[in-house]
Amino acid sequence: MLRNLYKILVIVAIVYLVHYDATYHEIHKENIDNIIVSDLENRKYDGYIYIPKFDYKGIIMHGDEKMILDSNNVLFLNNGSNINDKFGNIVLAGHNSKYVFSILYKLSIGDTLVVNTYDYEYKFLVYEIKTINIKDTYILDNLYDKKILTLITCTRDNQRRLIVRAKI
Asked: 45-167 domain in CATH 3.40.50.2000?
């Protein structure tokens, strides 16, 4: 009898956690949308990234890397370029967590990514998805002849980085 009670408690806990996680995800998504709307006037952020395939939005910020990443936002790694420059490599990094870039591994070549700076909206098409060694820094290099978007997140072993590149 104790075993059956234990099984029921485990099932109830799992159902609760799944419901709580789905509810928290919706609240997180609503908060992001509210931040985007309110930021139109205040401009505390550089903009946001939108991944239509997953209806994902993430706030883009530059500055204190640890604070930005730990607050589940997307870090703009300024490598000498700004998002609105005509040419350059827009490098965005985020934790591989369910509220930031855990979905990157589900992207496919040809998927659309949107970067919005409140003044401009840039649409990119994914052309490359790969993992690289954490010591490979060439993906951060700036470009002077074209504009691309590079998304970076860690992998589970934290010895490699998942890279998604997209062209405008």
From this structure: no
